[in-house]
């Protein structure tokens, strides 16, 4: 299990923050800014434990012997989409500093927040320029342990093309909402076109940029043969203090450029190192970034 019930209870006290409420199927924890109350019938959905029994349509129950809740036009929930980079480069680092493990903790936390708030959750994995596996769409806190089981079974392998994977996802028929991309952004084909397309389709995009500590500050020196874990391509280098400093400066400049470019497009961007406790990121850092409250 990714985390215990005590941690889950803390997470369930949070809600996700959206700049604009997306019209949905049922009421989650959010209301539209529309004034007034509509009493126009819109649709039905299955009854789930905790629903207001006054909303049951007893005529339908009598006919079908199954409980259904009536929905009204003014009610809204939030669609939440979590996209996890499952390429081989994500499988780097030991224990809890492993990038994929870290990404799965964050995906589990954000997904649990969505489910506990009554939002509609979809979690998808990105590999080899496509969507390799998917959880959902699901709604309701009763699906939290199914989500955790799904995430626990994920394994990183192969290459990825983030642009292609995200484009495929954005072009499929889905209801826009919050979209979280969890990745190290090590994709030769880039990722910005995909993120821009996702945004143009009406999604509110957040990018969680995940790196391991030895990617931020490599503990290496001397004559080295570096091998790309995804492609197997090798590069011979001589690494000294000057080249390490140049690497650190280049990484910092890259992340600052990402932050500036994404901010211009109103895309949230968080740079994360896996030596920061994941629960601190969710409970404190994401609050400061107005991703959760």
Structural category: alpha/beta
Largest sheet: 6 strands, mixed
Query: How large is the count of helical segments?
Result: 9
CATH homologous superfamily designation of the largest domain: von Willebrand factor, type A domain
Model description:
By secondary structure, the protein is of the alpha/beta class. Helices cover 34% and strands 23% of the residues. The protein is built from 9 helices and 10 strands. The strands form 3 sheets. A 6-stranded mixed β-sheet has the order 5-4-3-6-7-10, sandwiched between helices. Helix 3 (99-116) packs across helix 9 and helix 5 (162-171) packs parallel to helix 6 (192-200). The protein is elongated, with a radius of gyration of 21 Å. The two termini are 25 Å apart.
Task: Summarize the SSE layout with pairings.
Elements: H1 5-11, E1 41-46, H2 58-64, E2 68-72, E3 79-85, H3 99-116, E4 120-127, E5 130-138, H4 144-152, H5 162-171, E6 178-183, H6 192-200, E7 204-211, H7 213-216, E8 222-227, E9 234-239, H8 241-264, E10 268-273, H9 278-288
Which features characterize this protein?
2 domains; Rossmann fold; 293 residues; two-stranded antiparallel sheet; six-stranded mixed sheet; single chain; 10 strands; alpha/beta; 34% helix
